[in-house]
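Predict fold of Flagellar P-ring protein; 376 aa.
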Amino acid sequence: MQWTRIGRKLLGAAGVAALALAAAMPAQAERLKDLASIQGVRQNQLVGYGLVVGLDGSGDQTTQTPFTVQSVISMLQQLGVNVPTGTSSNMQLKNVAAAMVTANLPAFAQPGQLIDVTVSSIGNAKSIRGGTLLMAPLKGADGQIYAIAQGNIVVGGAGGSAAGSSTVINQLSAGRISGGATVERAVPSSLGSSDMIVLELNDNDFSTASRVVDALNKRFGNETAVAQDGRVIRVRAPISSGDRVAFLGALENVDVTPGKLAAKVILNARTGSVVMNQSVMLDTCAVSHGNLSVVIQADNAVSQPNALAGGQTAGVQNAQISINKEPGKVMLLKGGASLAEVVKALNAIGATPQDLLAILQAMKAAGSLRAELEVI
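Predicted 3D structure, encoded as tokens:
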């Protein structure tokens, strides 16, 4: 147990140090494809209702799911089978389950193309493993049918090991059908309706938008791109569809160095993990929490070289971090007043995740922590 605690402290300190080192590294150039998307090129969600048949007695209990019986009767009537009136209450459909079918229709999908679907039970079926989904129309948000789904359902993670000595059971009320839906209708695209295309950055950032505009104008000529705001960029593109596709292919591979994001600290309150997207500096503050007291003092000094040294006058920030867990026990860390050092020192004295959460929230409320704090 003692070695476990020591290892946990060492891992926590090493993790914080690695995060601080990674945050201090300069940003690397990335492809525009990874930073932005083209307006109008998107997926569309589809949903439908269907029946799963061929189950081994693990279907819906008809006394508690009357919609399953109604669906079976309606399906049989459409197939020309007359069901006597009054027999619905006596029907035992243990091999049938009602399910919702969902899928994502990719951009530029054409009729005849196959897409994957997910089948999820909406009744009280124990399992849909080994079942077959009957023909189910998939509709979009406009109520139009865009695909038809049907096929054998595969439930992932359900089955035995290679040696047959153990069995791993996963969620049995949902499964997938690879290529289980056929696209019947194409979604109209407005990509080629004008000589302008619109780029949408994944993150709203004026610095990145400005750098994207500069990179595109440098690559394709002046006045090719103009930023509308911190997220939307309008780009002039060729009219011809062939030239436009080639232009978009080249545009997606333009390298852009994104701007530095706003400082953000993410804390997992259950494990005590602290993740920072960059080096977060702290101002002077003092926090008292139970038997823990944290004092951070930043001393701004001026370093001035001698008259003949040939150097330049520069500001130097020396910070003193004092963390006291027990009377007479004080840890002092000298250097820059960074959040990474505070977390490292707190881990060294065995602070709990609740202690970290309370201290960081207090620093944020006091204005010492100038970063967005997100607790997950």
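The chain has three domains: 2-26+262-375, 30-41+190-256, 44-183.
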